[in-house]
Structure formats: C-alpha cells, structure tokens
Amino acid sequence: MKTIFGIILILFLISCAPTSKLSESDITNTTIKPSDTVIFNIPNSKITREMKETKPDLLKRFPFISYLPVTDFNGKFPPEFYTSIKLKFEAENIKNVDYWSLRNNKSLYDIIYIQPLWIGEFTLKEDDLIYNIARSFNISKEQVNILDNWVKDGGILWLESALFISSYDYKFNNFDENKIKEYIQKLKSLKLFGNKINITTFTAKKIDEFNIEKLLIEIVPERNSFNDEILKDTEKLLLEQNDYVGIYITVDGTPIVKSGDNIFSSYVNHGKGKIITIAPFDFKNVYYDGEIFRINLLSWAMNVRK
Fold this sequence. Notes:
This protein is an alpha/beta fold. It has helices at residues 2-16, 24-30, 44-52, 57-60, 79-83, 99-104, 129-136, 141-152, 167-172, 177-188, 290-303, and strands spanning 91-93, 111-114, 117-118, 156-160, 162-165, 191-192, 195-203, 215-219, 237-241, 245-251, 254-259, 262-270, 273-278.
C-alpha cells in the first residue's frame, strides 16, 4: 500500500508541475534581430570563370604543345609575356577535325596537329605515313584527300611525330631486336604526302623484363641564317623518353632543329601550305626551352603563310 501510495503521489506532483509554452507572439518578441544584415551575392559563374582564367590564353589554345597533359602547367614565363603575344589561330587535332565542313570552308582551321602514338595503336599498312595515321584513327581516304587539299590551299599540318615501343609492347607483342629493325626499315620507306622522311631512333637500357632506365637526351640546336629567328631564346631542348624504343620522324625538307647527323624538327612546303615535323620535346622542365621553341615556331609558321 505504501508503494502504491508513493507512485500516486509522484504522478500527482508531475501533473501539477508548471509548463512553459510560448505563443507565436512571444516567439516573435523574443527572437534577436540584427539591426543590419550584409549579404554577399557572388554568382558561381563568376568564380568558375576567374578560376579558368588563371592559365595563359595562349596555352589553353595551344593543345599540340606536347602529347603530355598541360592541365598542371601554367607556363614558364610571367603573365605579361603571354599577353604580349597577339597570335590568332584555330587549331584542331586530326582525330577531331570536321572534314566535311573543312571541304567547303578552308579557313575553318589554321593548324591541324598530330601527336605521338604508341606502336600498339599505329597501323602500318599503307605507303604514306599520313594514310597509316588516318587508318589508326579510322579516318577515311576521302577525308585524308580533304586534308591534303586543305594544306595545299595554305593550311599548316603540324606533327609532333614519334612512335614509341614500350617494354610491355616488346614482351607481349612478340617484338625482338630483329623485328624492330625490320619495322624501322619499313618506316623509312614511307612518304609523307609524297615527301621522303627521316628516322632517328633511341633505345633505352632495360633494367628487367618490364622496366627501363628513362632516357634524357639533351639537344643543343645548330644555328644558321634560316633558323636563327625561330631558335631565339632556345639554348637547349630535352627529349624525355619513358619507353624502351623511341622512333622520331621528320619530313625530308628544311631542317629547323639539327644536331650532328640527327634532325629533330623540319618543314616542307606543300602547295601554299606547310608540313611541320617536330620531336615531342619536353616543355615543363623550366631549365630547357621546349615551350618557347614551340611558340616561336608557331609564330614563324603563321607569319610566313602564303
């Protein structure tokens, strides 16, 4: 009985306890209101635009600077250097060209460029290098003919021309030294839109079956009366080869970068246009001049168009 009585007493006390319930007007009156509210309204589009504009415009519009990605590269020089360059051009990768529009509009692009390939993605079935590249990218012969006519009408075909054989290709595609020599001999017999080509090959030292010692090839270009302006501010260039075999291809024309018996960049007139070949020199290493060389070469090519 005592226990029951105690429980009843507790319940009675709880029911008698005061409750706190604020009316809507109480809430309104007790809420603290700041006297001044400052709202900053910054559109997302403005933030995004400002972030994108941190990279110099020339580099954003110069995607053929190398086969290496340029997303983490903002240029070697101060911003005022890039803003002082007034080059206007339209460039497109050969894989993405709108050939049917190009057929009727020769001014659609100023430059069409080709980047290096690995041996596994390169098809070697034709007598002309450009038709083999076209096969590799599923570009028809009719489209290549449009490209040919476009160059003859004044376009610039720019090839960062190299083929790489990795140690994995060597192992799994059943290459050996004799097959590589045969392959290179076949490449030497190719033409580039009817022009002969030159081949320079570098082979890295193998550490084991799948690993090689990276090749760092420093090139000091020889100067002459023709290339002196193009090579302005270019003291030395770097070829950084991360694959077992590097096959570098240049058109048999006027040398632009030559060192000893090796030609690393050259050009030939093709109708009113030009075919320019260049080894994929490193551009990120600030102790070498791969970036300024390409900019000067681009400037020369655009200014001497017929």
